[in-house]
Design goal:
Blueprint: H1 2-19, H2 24-42, E1 63-69, H3 74-84, E2 90-93, H4 95-100, H5 102-110, E3 114-117, H6 131-149, E4 155-156, H7 165-174, E5 177-178, E6 183-184, H8 192-199, E7 207-211, H9 215-228
Parallel strand pairs: 1-2, 1-7, 2-3, 4-5, 6-7
Helix pairs in contact: 1-2, 3-9, 6-7, 8-9
The protein binds zinc ion.
The site of zinc ion has 5 residues, from β1.
Length: 242
């Protein structure tokens, strides 16, 4: 809706520029502003502009979600912690890493966690993909996971949290449900104390973004889980919408 409103606004400005014979650079400014706003929407998954992503649990539970694995060192450490506190989580796995470490994918499944799709390659340029390229990324990851554990994921999280109209169309083609988050731990860029500060703001219904490929995450969870494991009902992402 907001995208069509912006398009209409751009059309009106360009029409006014034509009718009133505004200088040429007024066209350039209007188009540049339009493109800038559209691109900025891509970086705000929580605004649900291009994708109607799940951002919260539909109940009082808290979902811990781990992106970018499996990783040979940090994923086992996180699985050990989750097992110790009897917490089930969601792992958004990268297909090519699954092929490298299939035993970790099998363990994630055997430990009772939810396995989800985080693209086949997680390439830096992936957000610029066409609809067809996105579909290929998503379907390849589905096959890579299927081959290892025998079931295909139902959920998808966009790499870098970047959403685009092409990704939206590819997800409609593949039928997967997009998932964002309501609490970003910033574990990839913050100190352990910074991660703990954010984790301590967790509330019922939150979907928490973490990375099982990050040593800081292991350290932060080692300190945090003993304090909160009995305070919240931790469970994987629930697919019912709120
Ligand atoms: Zn990622």
């Amino acid at each position: 809706m907001i995208v069509w409103s912006l398009r209409f606004l751009l059309f009106c400005v360009l029409a006014a520029a034509f009718v009133y014979d505004w200088p040429w650079y007024s066209y350039a400014i209007a188009i540049a502003l339009y493109i800038g706003v559209m691109v900025s929407f891509s970086f705000r998954i929580e605004w649900r502009i291009y994708l109607d992503s799940l951002l919260k649990q539909p109940d009082d539970s808290v979902a811990l979600t781990f992106d970018d694995g499996p990783h040979p060192e940090t994923t086992p450490a996180i699985l050990d912690l989750l097992q110790h506190y009897n917490i089930k989580a969601t792992f958004f796995l990268i297909g090519e890493k699954c092929e490298q470490y299939p035993e970790l994918v099998r363990r994630i499944m055997a430990d009772g966690h939810q396995i989800a799709n985080h693209s086949a390659t997680h390439a830096y340029s992936i957000s610029l993909s066409s609809r067809r390229a996105w579909r290929d990324e998503i379907e390849r990851c589905q096959r890579q996971i299927m081959t290892i554990v025998g079931t295909a994921p139902l959920l998808f999280r966009p790499p870098y949290g970047v959403t685009t109209p092409n990704l939206s169309k590819a997800l409609a083609d593949t039928g997967l449900t997009p998932v964002g988050w309501s609490l970003h731990s910033h574990d990839w860029t913050s100190s352990v104390s910074g991660v703990l500060k954010r984790l301590n703001t967790v509330d019922q219904g939150d979907i928490v973004l973490l990375h099982d490929s990050c040593p800081n995450t292991v350290e932060a969870l080692t300190s945090w889980l003993p304090a909160v494991s009995k305070d919240f009902d931790f469970k994987p992402v629930v697919t019912t919408r709120v």
